[in-house]
Design goal:
The complex is a heterodimer of chains A (267) and B (856).
Chain A: H1 6-15, E1 24-35, E2 43-54, E3 58-62, H2 69-76, E4 84-89, E5 92-93, H3 99-109, E6 110-113, H4 125-129, H5 131-135, H6 142-152, H7 167-180, E7 185-189, H8 197-214, E8 218-221, H9 225-228, E9 233-238, E10 241-247, H10 251-265
Parallel strand pairs in A: 3-8, 3-9, 6-7, 7-8
Antiparallel strand pairs in A: 1-2, 1-4, 4-5, 9-10
Helix pairs in contact in A: 6-7, 7-8
Chain B: H1 2-10, H2 13-51, E1 57-61, E2 77-78, H3 79-86, E3 91-97, E4 99-101, E5 104-105, E6 121-125, E7 133-138, E8 146-150, H4 151-157, E9 164-168, E10 175-185, E11 196-200, H5 202-210, E12 215-216, E13 218-223, H6 229-240, E14 244-248, H7 249-296, H8 298-306, H9 311-352, H10 365-391, H11 410-432, H12 437-468, H13 474-485, H14 487-525, E15 530-534, H15 549-555, E16 560-573, E17 576-583, H16 585-591, E18 596-599, E19 608-612, H17 613-619, E20 626-630, E21 643-652, E22 661-663, H18 665-671, E23 679-684, H19 690-700, E24 707-711, H20 712-755, H21 757-765, H22 770-806, H23 819-845, H24 849-853
Parallel strand pairs in B: 6-11, 8-10, 17-22, 19-21
Antiparallel strand pairs in B: 1-13, 1-14, 2-12, 3-13, 4-6, 5-9, 7-10, 8-11, 9-10, 15-23, 15-24, 16-17, 16-20, 16-23, 18-21, 20-21
Helix pairs in contact in B: 2-7, 2-9, 2-10, 2-20, 7-10, 7-14, 7-20, 9-10, 11-12, 12-13, 12-14, 12-22, 13-22, 14-20, 14-22, 20-22, 20-23, 22-23
Classes of the chains: A alpha/beta (267), B alpha+beta (856).
The complex binds adenosine-5'-triphosphate and magnesium ion.
Chain lengths: 267, 856
Amino acid sequence: MNSEYNHLENAVTTTEPASATHAVAARAVDVWKVYGNSEQTRVNALAGVSVDFEQGKFTAIMGPSGSGKSTLMHCLAGLDEVTQGEVSIGDLRINGLNDAGLTKMRRSKVGFIFQQFNLLPTLTAKENITLPLDIGGRKPDQAWMDLVIKTVGLGDRLGHKPTELSGGQQQRVACARALVARPEVIFADEPTGNLDSRSGADVLSFLRQSVDEFGQTIVMVTHDPHAASYADRVIFLADGKIVAHMDQPTEDRVLDQMKNLDAARGV
Amino acid sequence: MLRAIFKSLLSRKLRLLLSGFAVVLGVMAVSGAFVLSDTLTKSFDDLFATANKNLDVQITGNRNVGDGGGDSFATPVPEKAVATVKDVPGVKKAEGSIGLNGARVVDKDNGKVIGSQGPPRLGIAWTGETDLMQIAEGTAPKNDKEVIINQGLAKKGDFKVGDTIDVLTLLQPKSTYTVSGIFELSGGRESLGGETYVGFTLAEAQRVMLGQSDAYSAIDVEANDGVSQTQLKADIENALGGAYTVKTGDEVADEQKADVEEFLSIFRNVLLGFAGVALFVGIFLILNTFSIIVAQRTKELALFRAMGASRRQIMWTVLLEAIVIGVIASFLGFLAGLGVAAGLKALVESSSGSALPGSGLSIPPIAIIASFTVGIIVTLIAAVVPALRAARIAPIAAMRQAADTQKPLRKITIAGAILTALGMALMGWGLFGDASIWALLGGVLFTYIGVAMLTPSIAKPVIDVVGRVFSWSLPGKLGRRNSARNPRRTAITAAALMVGISLIAGVTVLGSSIKTSFAKLVSDGVKAELLIIGDLDGGEGARPTYDPAVIDEVKALPDVAYVTPYQNDNVELDGNEEFASAADWTTMQQMIDVEGIQGEFRDLKPGEIIVDDKMADELDLKVGSTVGVATNRKLPGSNDGGVKDMTVVGIYDQSEFLGGLLLSEDDAKAGFSQPQPSEGYIKLKDGADVNVVKDQVDDILANNPEVSAQTQGELVEQGKKQIDQLLIIIYILLALAIVIAVLGVINTLALSILERTRELGLLRAVGLTRAQTMRMVTVESIVIAVFGSLLGIVVGCGLGTAIVKALKDDGISELDFPWTRLIIFLIIAIVVGLFAAIIPAIKAARTNVLRAISYE
Ligand SMILES: Nc1ncnc2c1ncn2[C@@H]1O[C@H](COP(=O)(O)OP(=O)(O)OP(=O)(O)O)[C@@H](O)[C@H]1O
Ligand SMILES: [Mg+2]
């Protein structure tokens, strides 16, 4: 039924084996996620996805709505259980971990940036940033904190509550929070989806910067080709499968690829 | 429309269950109160109808003292009056009878008297079977050493025909009789309502109960057919002259009913009081639930408005919901009330040892009307503010981001301050002025509402301080911040708890002050080391007494310096009913703190009295004045009205320890309804061991089961114990108010958690463990609970202080704050907070992270 992708299959499989020279921050091996249990309602949100995310790389995940981007991210981050397959963060295999294990893993190994409502309204910006550390009872590394805060450029607004910050500022606080615990990988689900282009650009360059300067690994879901162009690599999903990938993307090439995919789906 | 409302009701079952529960409890008490009192009244009416079936007119002697209430004692009717009555036309039968409260039977097992608190213990003359009483076993008493008793008493004391039985009577210390028979009351009942009967021969009853031979306590008259009770009453009054009190059978029955009504009204008032507290606390609960529901539905309601719904329509959607809840809760409460009434009826029956006549419950219309009116009105009152708030939602709110912004608290704070001040003024008026109890209750109510309105603005600073304790961990910090997030919500939840806790704290302060005052009174005012005394709350109608011969034996003990008996009764002084005491007053001065002001303070001879300074002022009495004194039993030398002229020999300073008229021992012996002493004061010689003497006195008292020797410390302990017993009953009743408030805490937490699903998901996503989530919710719960109880303790201490101050003249001289207990209440609050957090915390910990973060 997915025969229209056959001409792309080749390109995908060639990228599959993890490159021997680079360490892997997150890996999915033949991951399936199936919703619904009756024949009629069954949805294969992920249908055998295998992918490696190299350390110190900024990867964007793209694809049409409902293609399984968020599902893939949730499975990788241990927020959702896979139906079949293997997921690991760093060298820790996470499927099969119980809630306590997953919680601990999330606390120390992953950072999150959601599209909106990223911050706790009762905490100040600074308290929101240190939240993952505080939860784990860890002391922040002061020099690192200062560096992150400086990079994120909030300076005098640290004592403010989220309601007193603009949407862009809120997202930058969320970025700083994701960074501060030095996680293995940061997952961002459309972090700029709710922002105007300028605030979006601020957030994206900040993410780019944290990859270049701090060697952070970032996986970002986006609909926006411009946002994707900040990444080192783009993976395209359709109907729960990886259908293409692209290294060193530019806005135009991403747009072209998306048109191709749409054409392939007959849209 | 209605269907939509009903659907939304069903979808919030738990919430409604919790908020409706307070109404259910309150209405339950209301319906229980009315159904129970109606059922019991009907039952007792039936009982008295049976008991008085053939009583058309009853004649008793006049009362020398008082007008028939409480302990008062009707003078005997002489034998010759029976003959006079018999001659009155229309009289079918006239019989003298004796029936007086005060025949106390000793329990074989523990040596104490049976039934010292509660229904009367009657001593009667057995003059043969009647419609009311039939012999079930054995025979009538054949001589003065035999008695017949009722089945209820036989059961309570495990007496059989032929057993010996020890009885204390009004005029005689413990004496031994033999049970010749056991009788039952009509319908096979063991007793009418738990009372006991000892039936003596007529002569013995006259000797030990009445104190006069050839006399009765009443004449019971049966009329010929066709003669009206009122006519016969008038005829008999004419025939006898004014020296007697004549009543128709109906009047007698009405009086008996009035007594029962008074007893039942206590039940009813306790239940209604409980209902008031439950419903009042319930208002807070419902108010909060509706406020939260309205807040959560702001967008939805605004959308309705945008689509053209009027304010009125929006308001009615909320009010209709309230009415539905009110109706359902009232219905459930009404049914539960029937259960309560049935349970309490069974309790009354088991304590009286026999089933009440009339099967089933009687449900008066007022029970139904009151239940539903109260339930629905309370729910509506609570829903009015949220409904108005809902109506005020602007259509534009549909488009706006749901803001967590707080409305300023200034208006509500000012209104609260005014109400509080008004309430306190009313309370002050009720306590210190001459206003009625309603002013006091209204004042308390206003104060509560006022303080509740003040709580939102107090909440922030207090929670900051309280919460700081928990801030060492992140979950603690988050919990504390969450509790400070919506001051109104937290405040109302805490205020509900405040009401219950403050009532508890208030009565605790009062109880503790009474205890301290009593202890101080004893230690300051009593110099006697040992006292002979019975239970402090000994039965009405017959005080605990002991054989006066004991005093001489005690006096003979080597270590005893002085001893005096003491007894009291009510008398009439110049026509006013007054408290009167008799003792060896010379000796008494060695025992208690008492000061003569004028004349002499000494042991009195018959006909001599000492008055307190207040009486002297009011009646303008001086040393040497003569004044008329009437005692319950006629004194020798008194006129027809039982009044005897007596001479004032001294005036003394009335104190908390001693007040009223002081009489000679001889006059008391002859004139008091119980001639035996009820207390005794013993002063020891220097160097004597109080415990040794105590044992010696107890030996002497072996035959006096109602009293014992007690040291001052033991007496104080006894007093404290009794107050504690009372406090425990009040605590149990008020604990239900706390339970309701705890439901409020659970409700608020559950709703808040629902509101913060998204945040919970975020926290869980960034690594908050389930245990930490639970801790966060628990801290929020504890903070609310501690805040509420702190408020409650403060308000309760204020309330208690005000009452104690108001009762200063009634002997509560000391104000005492029982800190340990108050701290225990605070600890209980923490436990309560923990408890309330369980369900919400589990719910929060179970939050599905994925669903939460994708939740809009
Ligand atoms: N809880 C669920 N139950 C059933 N189906 C689900 C559930 N969650 C997601 N799906 C389905 O899984 C598929 C993938 O969903 P997913 O949210 O991953 O898409 P997405 O690529 O993130 O889309 P978008 O760009 O709109 O966010 C969709 O077809 C969706 O309908
Ligand atoms: Mg998505």
